[in-house]
Write a structure and sequence with these properties.
The protein has about 80 residues and is of the alpha+beta class. It is about 30% helix and about 15% strand.
Length: about 80
């Protein structure tokens, strides 16, 4: 798939709807930017830790649980 997009005066480009839909890109998603010679490569970042909704206050136990889940997934352990 090859689509031309225009760079705005603020050096921004719009990702065409067909590309967003194909890759499942949503508002707020992260994209990595890689430069390879004369190419710019955008990749959707798959986040390992689920996003926590804004406005919800994290407790110490929430943070401890998220850390433990991350550590366990990295070493393949379980309780």
């Amino acid at each position: 798939m090859k689509i031309l997009v225009k760079v705005t005066r603020n050096y921004q480009v719009t990702i065409p709807a067909s590309v967003r839909e194909r890759l499942g890109i949503k508002v707020g998603d992260l994209l990595s930017v890689e430069v390879d010679d004369d190419r710019i490569i955008l990749r959707k970042v798959i986040q390992e830790i689920p996003m926590i909704r804004l406005g919800r206050e994290l407790t110490i136990s929430d943070i401890d649980r998220l850390i433990e889940e991350g550590l366990m997934s990295n070493v393949g352990g379980s309780d």
